[in-house]
Amino acid sequence: MTQVDQSIESALSDALGRHSWADTVSGVKQIVTRYLEGLHSGARVRHTDFFNHSFAPDLTMTWPDASQAERRVFLRFPDHPEFIADSVTNDIPQGSMVVGLGELESRDAAPLLADSSRDRDTLVVDPPGLDALNESATKGSGETIVTSAVARGARGLFGRAKAGEVTRRIATGLQGAARGEAGPTSQAADTTKSDFAPRQANSLEYLLQTYWVAGGGRADKYPGEFRPSVKIGANELALLLETLDIDDWVFWRNLGNDVTLERVFALGTTSHSANLSRLIRANVDRFTAKAAWIRLSDGRIHEPGEPDYDWRLENDLLRLVGPTFEAHFAERRKRINKLSADHKGDGIAPEVLLERAPQLGITEVRFDDGRSQLVFSTDDITADDRTTSMAKSFGDAGRIVRATATVPSADTHATVDFESLTAVAMTNSNPPLYGLARTAVQALVPLNQEQRAAFEEFVQLPGEIAEDGVLVPTLFDEIVPEAALPGGRPAADPDAY
Amino acid sequence: MFGEESHAVGAAGVQKAKRWLDATTRVDVQWIYPEEAAREKLAFSWHDDAPFAYDMGGVFRGGPLANLTFMAEVKHYSEAGGQGAMYEEYLARCYRARQQKPGFTDQFMWITWHPFSVTNWSKLTTVDAVRAAVIKHSPKSLGVPVDHAASAVDDKVCAEVAETLWLLVLSEKHEFLMLSDLDRAAVITAQITRAGV
């Protein structure tokens, strides 16, 4: 039985010391499997019924992503590194992984082994190297990107020193690229080329480049080979949201140059709500939505440290979660209609709407008392005395079931439905998310003064963005024209902020 | 030279033999002597506790021998050398190994690159050859002086050992008769797939 806190060397030694051949083989494979899984690459590790065979793998690693080829894993005893080098060159498939069952990095033949394995895009890793990679994988998401990439396509000899160096360089490079720092980005780019097989190297450099661009770096200043074809697609956006924790409004603002809300919706779900929230908040004036639906609640239970308001993405829906409500947003009215179909309210009492109305710019209301309806249009219902007298004429049963509100900072109006609790933009072009959010929440959600102030602050662009003046399109806009992207939208208007 | 006496010379030959055997796709050579982890796996001891070890060990794959274990002694020689005498001691070792750990080793192989004792070749794997070797090395194999060996030797074990002896003569040209890399890869992929991996 392997102890959880046992070192890999000690665990392997125990397994190799078992009397039975079958028990030894099984024990060694279980230990190596645990360490391969500890690289967090998402691979399924399976055992073959071979052991230390010249040509057949001991283990295989496969990934759900069909474009990622299977990686065959060969276990080798460390006594003769030159034999391992010969085996890598002549006997095992290119792109394989060899796990040495003893230390290799300090051996005299290590340079030979490093060269031959690099030539064959094969990773040779020894137990200290695996241990170092496993330690890195628990440190942070940047490191996990590296350990996952190592599992999928590193090449050369990875002992403790090499594994540490590669992990540090690339993780630091990703952080540096996000801040537009050429030095660490350049080092990471060099490392990807020398220590990873071409396919994985391209993937890593693509990620570096994405961080560089999203971090505000100019394409022509990228300290590596810039690929003009780079686009932030669903995979890249998912990586950006799920990996590094980037607390930098400028980064997320720049990323908004190339990302539409439609592309965010396409992700379906993201587990990293902090990054998603930053992306939405930093671009709340540029992301657009057609319709919103409010679901009222009695108040949610906060997790420790959880903010009062937050953006979430689940089941292809963007939600603004507040203390007593959830606002769902969609780019198409149909999606919202489906959600709200089973929820039918009574409308709103006229005096309640009049209390909320000063911020809403309501130009039209529809009264309903169950028997008859009346539509009243005016410049602003709060400024027109007839609104109150008309409401009184409907008696106690009178409710307002619909209203037309002015969407802030957008030359458009929205229909607010107090029965279905929806707000739908009336024009063909969708209004900015923050305008629709303000209209929907302020009209449909009862908020006290404190809650209203907190909400107002949450849906405003963070001050750092306006102050930093990062609204000027970056060079990246020239590389990926907005119009060429699905869901292309008009350029942001700097005067609007 | 046996096992531990032949490190430098033998390691490359053992590796060559392993590669050839593995390439048949009918065996999995799992343990080879120069490797530290294999020492205990391939080790036995004489009656006087002196240790001895085979050069390699593994399991058969498929067919009537599936999952049976084997031990092998490898002689990567370009001439007969002293193989005749060493082979006799090897037979005594096989007898001792079978007695010391019954059921542990199913088959015994002698793999060489040069024939030896050619005038006696057809008799090298007979019960008589095993019996004679055991008696000759009786102080170590049986723990009795040679003049008491005839009554101490177990003929049943001699017969069992003789039944499981393999005498293989390889040549450098054998490497050209191995499956091509492409065909071998296809076979191995099929074997892995068939096993449900």
What secondary-structure arrangement, pairings included, does this model have?
The complex is a heterodimer of chains A (497) and B (197).
Chain A: H1 8-16, H2 21-37, E1 44-47, E2 59-62, E3 71-76, H3 81-90, E4 97-100, H4 110-119, E5 123-125, H5 127-137, H6 141-153, E6 156-158, H7 160-178, H8 182-195, H9 198-214, H10 234-242, H11 249-255, H12 261-266, H13 273-282, E7 291-296, E8 310-314, E9 317-321, E10 325-330, H14 333-340, H15 350-356, E11 364-368, E12 373-377, H16 386-393, E13 399-406, E14 413-417, E15 422-425, H17 433-444, H18 449-459, H19 463-468, H20 476-479
Chain B: H1 7-23, E1 27-32, E2 43-45, E3 51-53, E4 56-60, E5 69-75, H2 83-100, E6 107-112, H3 127-136, H4 138-141, H5 146-152, H6 155-163, E7 165-169, H7 181-194
Separate helix tally of chain A: 20
**SS elements, strand count of chain B:** 7
Share in helix of chain A? 40-55%
Oligomeric form: heterodimer
Overall 3D shape of chain A: elongated
Shape label of chain B: globular
The biggest beta sheet of chain A is recorded as: 9 strands, antiparallel
Helix content of chain B: 40-55%
Computed structural class of chain B: alpha/beta
Strand fraction of chain B equals 15-25%
Q: How would you portray this structure in words?
A:
The complex is a heterodimer of chains A (497) and B (197). With 497 residues, chain A is α+β, with helices and mostly antiparallel strands. Chain A has 20 helices and 15 strands. In chain A, the strands form 2 sheets. In chain A, strands 8-9-10-7-15-14-13-11-12 form a 9-stranded antiparallel beta sheet, with helices on both faces. Chain A is elongated and about 95 Å long. Chain A starts with 7 loop residues before the first helix and ends in an 18-residue tail after the last helix. Chain B is of the alpha/beta class and 197 residues long. Chain B contains 7 helices and 7 strands; from the N terminus they run αβββββαβααααβα. Chain B has a 5-stranded mixed beta sheet, sandwiched between helices. In chain B, strands 2-3 form a two-stranded antiparallel sheet. In chain B, a hairpin with an 8-residue loop joins strand 4 and strand 5. In chain B, helix 3 (127-136) crosses helix 6 (155-163). The model of chain B is unreliable at 1-5 (pLDDT under 50). The A-B interface holds A 16-17, 19, 21, 24-25, 46-57, 60, 77, 79-80, 83, 91, 93, 101-102 and B 11, 15, 18-19, 22-23, 28-32, 34-38, 40-41, 57, 59, 69, 184-185, 188, 191-192, 195, 197.
